[in-house]
Design goal:
Elements: H1 5-15, E1 27-32, H2 44-62, E2 66-68, E3 72-73, H3 78-87, H4 91-108, E4 119-120, H5 124-139, E5 143-153, E6 158-160, E7 165-166, E8 169-170, E9 177-187, H6 193-198, E10 204-205, H7 207-217, E11 219-229, E12 234-239, E13 250-253, H8 259-262, H9 270-281, H10 285-289, E14 298-306, E15 313-318, E16 330-333, H11 339-348, H12 385-398, E17 402-408, E18 413-414, E19 427-430, E20 434-437, H13 467-470, E21 471-473, E22 480-483, H14 497-500, H15 513-519, E23 524-527, H16 535-548, E24 560-563, E25 567-568, H17 585-592, H18 594-603, E26 611-612, H19 615-633, H20 646-661, H21 665-682, H22 686-696, H23 701-710, E27 734-741, E28 744-752, H24 757-765, H25 768-774, E29 781-785, E30 789-793
C-alpha cells in the first residue's frame, strides 16, 4: 500500500464540498480555537484538539446531524508585526503566506472544515464588526480611557493586560515587564463579574475551567472600614476579615496612592518616599506581590492613621506589595494572623497582637482562624469568628465607619496596544467635543498602508507618526481633531468570531438574527486551559454585552467546553527548539501518512491529560492501518457479517460510538484494533468491512475511503450512515466462569450465559483440573456468583 491515495481523497472531498454545512437536520456546532497563523505552521500541539473535534464532526455527520465545523485565523498580533519588521515586508503579506501554509497543512491532515465559512480577523470586512462592537461598548459606558499604571513589555514596546503577564514576563516574548503610567483604553469587564461567575452554573464546562474562571474573577465578601488620619483625610480599606480590626497595628498604602502627593508638605521624609516609589514603578505586579520576596517599605513620617475600634494612632507605611488596582490601594495590617504582615512587622519592629486564640504569634502568624474565639478584641471577645464578622460589620455601619462589601480580584481589561498590526480603535479626539465615535457608516476604519510601522521608543503607537491619517475633522463639530492611534489587542477579534462563522459573508450586520438563532450557542467548544482566563473569559463578557443590547438571544455563547492535555516530547519533557525535541506533524505525514498521524495523536493517551510523544508507538499505528488494508484484500465476498465475531462487532459499534462522545479516543481505537485482530484471525467478510470502515472513517478517513472504493461500495464512506448496534447482540451467549477451591483459583470453565447454579457446580466438579484439588472429597459448601465465580469449599 502507498500513501498517495490521501491526496486523491482530499481533492475529491474539496471538489464535492463534502463537508459543506447542511442547513437541515439537528444542528451540531463544533468549535476549536482558531489559530494564530505563525510562520512555523501547524505544530503537533494543534493536531490533538483539531483531530479530536474532527473525529466528532465526522461521526456526527454520519449520524445525520447538520454539523457546523468551521475554521478561521486569529491573525492580528505582535509576532506577525515583528516578523514583518525583520523581513521588511508588510504584515498583511506575512499573514497571507502564513494562512496559506496553515490551510495547506490542515488539508493534508484530512480535517473536514467547511472552508466556505472561513474568517480572518485582519479582513476589513471582519474587523468592521469588531469596531462596531467597540463603539457599542463605548456608547454604553463600558469602553473608557483612563490614565493608570500599566504593564509595559520592554521588548514588544507596548502595554499588556494583566492576563498577558506570566510570572513577571511577557506571555508572548518572555521579556521583562515593568510598570508605566499611560492613558489607556479600558473595557469594563468588572461590570459583568458576578454574572460571569453565576452563569457558569448554566453551562457544561469541565470543573478545572470553572474553577480557574471563578478564582481569576476572585469574588470575596467582607467589609470596608474607614481609618481616620492625622492629616484629616480618611483611608478606606477593604478586608475579608473585619473581625480582626482590633489586631490592626499599622497600615500600608500603595506607592501610587494619591494621598502621598496630597500629603507632600506634611511628610518629613517625602524624598525617601519618592525614591521608593520610583523603584516600585520599575517592577511588574508579579514582582511586587511575590510572597517570597524581601519585605520593603518606608514609614510615612508626619502622618499616622487611627484604628477605628481602638482609637489608637498607628503608623502608615508605603510598600510595593499593595497595588492601587486592587481594593482601595490601602490595607490594614494584622500581623498576628497574616504571614506577610507578620514578616513585615518583625522587620520594622511593629506590634503584633493576637485577636483569634490558638496560635503562638511570637513564632509565626496564626492562620487557622476561620473558626475559633476572639480575644483582645473588646466587645468581640469570646465570640466565634463567624459571629464576630457579623457584629463588627454591623458596628461599622452603625457608626458610619464602613459597610459590608463584595469585592473582586478581576480588573478592567486594558484594551490599548501601541502597535500597528491591530484593529484601529474607531475614536476621534477633539479638544472641544472630547472622544467622538467614528460614524458607523464610515466603518471599517482601515489601517493606512505605510512603509514604516516600527514601534516608537516613546511608547506611542507607530500610527501616531502617520499624520495624514491621524489629522481629521471632528464628526461632531467639524473642527480640527486627531484619530486614536492605539490599536486593539489580539483578543478583540477572537471575542466574537464564533458568531461570524454562522453568517460569515453578511455585510449588513455581524450575523443575521436568523443565523444566530439557528446555530448558537456553540454546542461543543474545545480549547487549551491556558486560554481559560484570557479568550474564554473575554468572549463570554462580549457575548453577554451583545445579549444585553439585543444582538444575540442567549446569555452564554458556549454550551460545553472541554480542554486537552499538552503533547510533551519523548521522555516527558516540554517540547522546545532548544531541546531539539519538537515534532513536526508534516514530517510524520510525509513518512507514515496522515491517517497514521491522526490515529496516533488520538491513541497517545487520555485526551484531557498531558502525554509524551513516542516514535515507536507511531509505527504501531501504521501497522494497524496495514492490518486493515490486508483484511480488505482478503475479504470474503459475502455481505453477511462473520457469525463468530458478530457479538464483538456490535460491542465495537457501541464502544466506539460512546467513547468518541466521551473523548476516550484511545480506548475507541484500541477496540477497533481488537476487532481487526479478531477478523484477521477468522477471515473477514465484506459485511464485516462494511461496518469496520465506517467506524474507522472518523479516525483514518483516507484509508476508509480508499478501501471503501476498492471493495465496490458506493458513494463516499464519510457520507454513509453511522453503524448502530443491536442491544441484544452486545451480550455474549457464553461466559467464562472462574472456579475456586477454598478461595484459590484452580480453573475456568465456559458455560452458556445465565446458567443455573446446579449446572455451574456440576460443570466445575466435572473439570479434571478441579478434581485433583478435591482429592475425591465432596464440597461441604458451594458459593456461586452468577456468570462470574464458583467457589468449592472443602474442610481440611
Amino acid at each position: 500500500m502507498t500513501k498517495d491515495y490521501e491526496k486523491k481523497w482530499q481533492k475529491r472531498w474539496a471538489e464535492e464540498k463534502a463537508f459543506k454545512t447542511r442547513e437541515d437536520g439537528e444542528k451540531s456546532y463544533l468549535l476549536i480555537e482558531f489559530p494564530y497563523p505563525s510562520g512555523n505552521g501547524l505544530h503537533v500541539g494543534h493536531t490533538r484538539p483539531y483531530t479530536a473535534m474532527d473525529v466528532i464532526a465526522r461521526k456526527r455527520r454520519m449520524q445525520g446531524q447538520s454539523v457546523l465545523f468551521p475554521m478561521g485565523w486569529d491573525a492580528f498580533g505582535l509576532p506577525t508585526e515583528n516578523t514583518a519588521i525583520a523581513k521588511r515586508i508588510h504584515p498583511s503579506v506575512v499573514t497571507r503566506d502564513n494562512v496559506e501554509l496553515f490551510r495547506k497543512q490542515s488539508d493534508a491532515l484530512g480535517y473536514s472544515f467547511d472552508w466556505d465559512r472561513e474568517v480572518n480577523t485582519t479582513d476589513p470586512g471582519y474587523y468592521k464588526w469588531t469596531q462596531w462592537i467597540f463603539l457599542k461598548l463605548f456608547e454604553n459606558g463600558l469602553a473608557y480611557k483612563a490614565r493608570m499604571p500599566v504593564n509595559w513589555c520592554t521588548s514588544c514596546l507596548c502595554v499588556l493586560a494583566n492576563e498577558e503577564v506570566v510570572d513577571g514576563v511577557c506571555e508572548r516574548c518572555g521579556s521583562a515587564v515593568v510598570r508605566r503610567e499611560k492613558s489607556q483604553w479600558m473595557l469594563k469587564i468588572t461590570a459583568y463579574a458576578q454574572r460571569l461567575i453565576d452563569d457558569l452554573d448554566m453551562v457544561d464546562f469541565n470543573d478545572r475551567v470553572k474553577a480557574q474562571q471563578r478564582n481569576w474573577i476572585g469574588r470575596s465578601e467582607g467589609a470596608e472600614a474607614d481609618f481616620a488620619t492625622t492629616a484629616g483625610d480618611i483611608l478606606r480599606v477593604y478586608t475579608t476579615r473585619p473581625d480582626t480590626l482590633f489586631g490592626a497595628t499599622y497600615m500600608v498604602i500603595s506607592p501610587e496612592h494619591p494621598f502621598i502627593e496630597k500629603w507632600k508638605e506634611k511628610l518629613e521624609n517625602y524624598r525617601e518616599i519618592d525614591d521608593y516609589r520610583a523603584g516600585a514603578a520599575r517592577k511588574s505586579d508579579f514582582e511586587r506581590t511575590e510572597l517570597a520576596k524581601d519585605k520593603t517599605g518606608v514609614m510615612l513620617s508626619g502622618v499616622c492613621a487611627v484604628n477605628p475600634v481602638t482609637g489608637k494612632e498607628i503608623p502608615v507605611f508605603v510598600s510595593d506589595y499593595v497595588l492601587m488596582s486592587y481594593g482601595t490601594g490601602a490595607i490594614m495590617a494584622v500581623p498576628g494572623h497574616d504571614t506577610r504582615d507578620w514578616e513585615f512587622a518583625k522587620k520594622f519592629n511593629l506590634p503584633i497582637v493576637e485577636v483569634v486564640a490558638g496560635g503562638n504569634i511570637d513564632e509565626a502568624a496564626f492562620l487557622d482562624t476561620e473558626s475559633g474565639k476572639m480575644v483582645n478584641s473588646g466587645f468581640l471577645d469570646g465570640l466565634e469568628v463567624g459571629e464576630a464578622k457579623k457584629k463588627i460589620t454591623a458596628w461599622l455601619v452603625e457608626k458610619g465607619l464602613g459597610e459590608a462589601k463584595v469585592n473582586y480580584k478581576l480588573r478592567d481589561w486594558v484594551f490599548s496596544r501601541q502597535r500597528y498590526w491591530g484593529e484601529p480603535i474607531p475614536i476621534i479626539h477633539c479638544e472641544k467635543c472630547g472622544a467622538v465615535p467614528v460614524p458607523y457608516e464610515e466603518l471599517p476604519l482601515t489601517l493606512p498602508m505605510v512603509d514604516s510601522y516600527e514601534p516608537t521608543e516613546s511608547g506611542e503607537s507607530p500610527l501616531s507618526k502617520m499624520r495624514e491619517w491621524v489629522e481629521v475633522k471632528c464628526p461632531k463639530c467639524g473642527g480640527a481633531a486627531e484619530r486614536e492611534t492605539d490599536t486593539m489587542p489580539q483578543w478583540a477579534g477572537s471575542s466574537w468570531y464564533f458568531l461570524r462563522y454562522t453568517d460569515c459573508n453578511n455585510d449588513r450586520e455581524l450575523a443575521s438574527r436568523e443565523a444566530i438563532e439557528k446555530w448558537m450557542p456553540v454546542d461543543w467548544y474545545n480549547g487549551g486551559m491556558e486560554h481559560t482566563t484570557l479568550h474564554l473569559l473575554y468572549s463570554r463578557f462580549w457575548h453577554k454585552f451583545l445579549y444585553d443590547i439585543g444582538v444575540v438571544p442567549m446569555p452564554e455563547p458556549y454550551k460545553k467546553r472541554t480542554s486537552h492535555g499538552m503533547i510533551l516530547g519523548e521522555g516527558g519533557e516540554k517540547m522546545s527548539k532548544s531541546r531539539g525535541n519538537v515534532v513536526d506533524p508534516g514530517d510524520i505525514v510525509a513518512e507514515y501518512g496522515a491517517d497514521t498521524m491522526r490515529l496516533y495523536i488520538m491513541f497517545i493517551g487520555d485526551f484531557e491529560k498531558a502525554a509524551a510523544w513516542a516514535s515507536q508507538a507511531v509505527k504501531g499505528c501504521r501497522r494497524f492501518v496495514e492490518k486493515v488494508w490486508a483484511l480488505s484484500e482478503k475479504a470474503k465476498a459475502t455481505l453477511n457479517v462473520s457469525p463468530a465475531t458478530e457479538v464483538l462487532l456490535h460491542k465495537t459499534i457501541k464502544k466506539v460510538t460512546e467513547d468518541i462522545e466521551q473523548l476516550k479516543f484511545n480506548t475507541a481505537i484500541a477496540q477497533l484494533m481488537t476487532l481487526t485482530n479478531e477478523l484477521g484471525a477468522g477471515g473477514a467478510t465484506k459485511g464485516d468491512l462494511y461496518v469496520l470502515l465506517r467506524l474507522l472513517s472518523p479516525f483514518a478517513p483516507h484509508t476508509a475511503e480508499e478501501l471503501w472504493e476498492k471493495l465496490g461500495f458506493k458513494e463516499l464512506c464519510c457520507k454513509q450512515k453511522w453503524p448502530e448496534y443491536d442491544p441484544r447482540k452486545v451480550i455474549d451467549s457464553e461466559v467464562e466462569i472462574a472456579v475456586q477451591v477454598n478461595g484459590k483459583l484452580r480453573a475456568s470453565i465456559v458455560l452458556p450465559l445465565d446458567s443455573g447454579d446446579g449446572d455451574v457446580i456440576k460443570a466445575a466438579l466435572g473439570d479434571a483440573r478441579v478434581a485433583q484439588y478435591l482429592a475425591g472429597k465432596t464440597p461441604d459448601r458451594t458459593i456461586v456468583v452468577r456468570n462470574k465465580i464458583v467457589n468449592l469449599v472443602i474442610k481440611p
